[in-house]
Amino acid sequence: MRIVIAEDNALLREGMVLLLTTNGHEVVATCAAGPEVLPALRTHRPDAAVLDVRLPPTFRDEGLRAAVQARSELPELPILVLSQYVEQAYAAELLAQGARGIGYLLKDRVGRVEQFLEALERIADGGTALDPEVVTEIVSRKAAARPLRSLTPREHEVLEMMAQGLANAAIAERLVVTERAVSKHIRGVFDKLGLPPEGGSVHRRVLAVLAYLDAAATTSPAR
């Protein structure tokens, strides 16, 4: 996999380069500041990008802005966003353009090699990979969201794990239930959120996650 990395911390940036190359990937460019990101993505057209949310010169949201712009220009580009803290409004803003191939992890996950690589591979395959702590933050704000009020506690759990990017088998293992039971709960989520059946199960999973994040974003305080 050909990857572009944007991270201002030199130690973390070089550590990711070493980690990725050791695991058979090619890092085609690295960026240390926001203005470098889009030119690198346009030039190299990578298979995936790993972007820090906060980059120089202002250390606010340069990486997120670059990710949003990159997705508008290169809509199929898988992007894994890294953040020091849970900033769920950023996740919602990025995912508003479409959840396929999008990941949002806390930087602590980079040190957990298997989780980081799994998330990167998942988004490269068109899936989503949301950090459990980001999802927990979203869950804490969901009470005011009308479309989600009708979900049962178990359906909330299943939707939370869908938002993390977990497949049915992984959800079943976490909840210690059968895949058939998970499928039933997912159908309940789709029906209660009013998601159209004609889009296919993968498309409806994305729509469900977007509804989840959108509801959270509307109840979050202004930045």
From TrEMBL:
Sites bearing 4-aspartylphosphate, chain numbering: D52
Q: Where does the record place the HTH luxR-type domain?
A: 144-216
Per the record, the coiled-coil ranges are none
Report whether Transcription shows up as a keyword of the record.
yes
Any one GO molecular-function label of the UniProt entry: DNA binding
One GO process term, biological-process aspect:
regulation of DNA-templated transcription
Q: Which SMART domains does the UniProt entry name for this protein?
A: HTH_LUXR, REC
- Asked whether the UniProt record includes Transcription among its keywords, one would answer yes
Q: What is this protein called?
A: Response regulator transcription factor
Extract the CDD domains matched here: LuxR_C_like (cd06170), REC_NarL-like (cd17535)
**PANTHER family in alphabetical order:** TRANSCRIPTIONAL REGULATORY PROTEIN NARL-RELATED, TWO-COMPONENT RESPONSE REGULATOR
> Which keywords appear in this protein's UniProt record, sorted alphabetically?
DNA-binding, Phosphoprotein, Transcription, Transcription regulation
Domain Response regulatory: start-end pairs: 2-122
